[in-house]
Amino acid sequence: MENFKQTTCLPLLRSSYNGLTKSEQKLADYILKNPSDVMHMTMSELADATSSADATVFRFCHKLGFSGFQGMKQALAGDLFSPAESLSQEVNADDTPRDITRKVFQDMIDALQETQKMLDYKALEQAIDLVSKTERVDAYGYGGSGNIAQDIAHRFMRFGLDVHAYSDPHLQIASASLLKPEDVVIAISHTGASIDLLKVLEMARSRGSKIILITSYVKSPATKLADVVLTGLARETSYRSEAMASRLVHLAILDCLYTGVMQRRMDDYIDNMKQVRKAIASQKM
């Protein structure tokens, strides 16, 4: 998690939360609820406020990738003075359509800005490299993530790839069993903890295929199976669950991956799009 060092704190706490121990979650809860207060605390004061030991706070900071408590506070300071860390825009019963629009759009902007701060750009480059060099891509996802998998199939076919999207677990495991070492899997999962998906990724891994995971949590069972992990998380609001909010962020990450691959396979893209547009034009009156 070295890429997060002294760059962002609050978004990292939210995306790492499920992978923390109970004592670490208690520290994370306190920091998330009282970030301004923590800025003026010593390590011992934070330990006292959370009924923790100084050593627990120190290990907590290192686990998140910071050099120490002061390193975490430096990243926290950057978050507090960033527009992306503004208070969540809750929708009230008497809000007008204009108010609702402003709040929904602001939440989207905040989510994208937080993801931009915490995205692992080395991992993104690795993902671009893997997809640029393969000829087959399998995209896996369930529910809302299944829609993103379908978007992958729709767009990445423009590179001339053999790309398929599966949201049914039986079709996923059947397809994964036929993968080859040169093939690539792109899995989309908010929690990274779906039992069905984990079985499919284990199958893909046993076949030697490379796995790219787009998820909301830095530490989850699925991240241990993936070769490349791209993380982005949106906060939950009263009108939208965390999983729903994260779909926009995951689509933005996918856009970055798609654009990077297009740079590498520009000739294929141009030639194929000519053919696609010609075929579509023939279907019009």
Q: In terms of per-residue confidence, which ranges show pLDDT below 50 for 5 or more consecutive residues? A: 1-6, 83-87
Summarize model confidence as the mean pLDDT. Answer: 87
Q: Helix and strand succession? A: HHHHHHHHEHEHEHEEHH
Radius of gyration: 21 Å
What is the H level of CATH, i.e. the homologous superfamily of the largest domain? Glucose-6-phosphate isomerase like protein, domain 1
What gap, in angstroms, lies between the N and C termini? 55 Å
Strand tally is 5
**Share of β-strand residues:** 5-15%
Structural features, described:
The chain has 285 residues and is α/β, with parallel strands linked by helices. It folds into 3 domains: 2-81, Orthogonal Bundle (Arc Repressor Mutant, subunit A), CATH 1.10.10.10; 85-118; 121-278, Rossmann fold, CATH 3.40.50.10490. The chain contains 13 helices and 5 strands. The chain has helices spanning 10-16, 22-33, 35-39, 43-49, 54-63, 69-80, 97-118, 121-133, 144-156, 169-176, 195-206, 242-264, 266-281; strands spanning 136-140, 162-166, 184-189, 210-215, 228-231. The protein has a 5-stranded parallel sheet, sandwiched between helices. Strand 1 (136-140), helix 9 (144-156) and strand 2 (162-166) form a beta-alpha-beta unit. The termini are far apart. The relative contact order is 0.13.
